[in-house]
Amino acid sequence: MKAASRIAWAGTCCGLAGAIALWIGALLGKGAFAPALIAALVCFGYALALYGWAGARRARVTIIQRGMPGALAVWGAAWYCEECDGVFFDSPAAPDVAEHQVITPAAFHRMVWKAGRFGGIPGRLVG
After folding, report:
1. What is the per-residue pLDDT across 30-82, written as a single tens digit (0 to 9) for each?
2. Distance (Å, rounded) from C-alpha 4 to C-alpha 53?
3. Which helix (H) or strand (E) holds 102?
4. Whole-angstrom distance between the N-terminal and C-terminal Cα of the chain?
5. Domain ranges of the chain
6. Among the listed residues 118, 68, 70, 119, the one whose alpha carbon sits nearest the alpha carbon of residue 95
7. Would the pLDDT of 126 be above 50?
8. Which residues contact 37 (CB under 8 A, 6 or more apart)?
9. Helices within 1-127 (DSSP H only)
10. Which backbone phi and psi does 102 adopt, to 5 degrees?
């Protein structure tokens, strides 16, 4: 959430810079207002883009935080066997897997993402 807050603050600074550009353009008058208006519009555009980016990041973090207990429950019940390059469960923690049945790391990865309901998150978990 810190990163999203910093991004939102950067958007606020861009908006403030746009307001200052308008103010300076109005003070100088004559031919200075048109360039100041263009600079202000660019600053306001960046501000809106940064606010959107911060909102998307906050939504993504919220999805991850809600899914962590389920994902960690599956993760904590699993054991990795380096010799057979597989994952197994000592207890019936996962309904799809029998006790002591070895599954591939890729299948385990999908199981953790399904338990955490991370399916709608593209790419990495932390970015």
Report:
1. 888 999 999 999 999 999 999 999 999 998 888 888 889 988 888 888 889 89
2. 8
3. none
4. 12
5. 2-116
6. 70
7. no
8. 21, 22, 25
9. 2-28, 33-77, 105-116
10. -90, 130
pLDDT per position as a tens digit, 99-114: 667 888 888 888 888 8
Residue whose tokens read 């923690």 = 93
Structure tokens at 23: 């103010």
* Phi–psi pair at 73, nearest 5 degrees: -65, -45
CB 63, CB 20: distance < 8 Å:
no
What does the DSSP assignment read for 60-83?
HHHHHHHHHHHHHHHHHHEEEETT
H/E segment holding residue 89: strand 86-89
- Tokens linked to 74: 């599956």
Is the CB of residue 80 less than 8 Å from the CB of residue 103? no
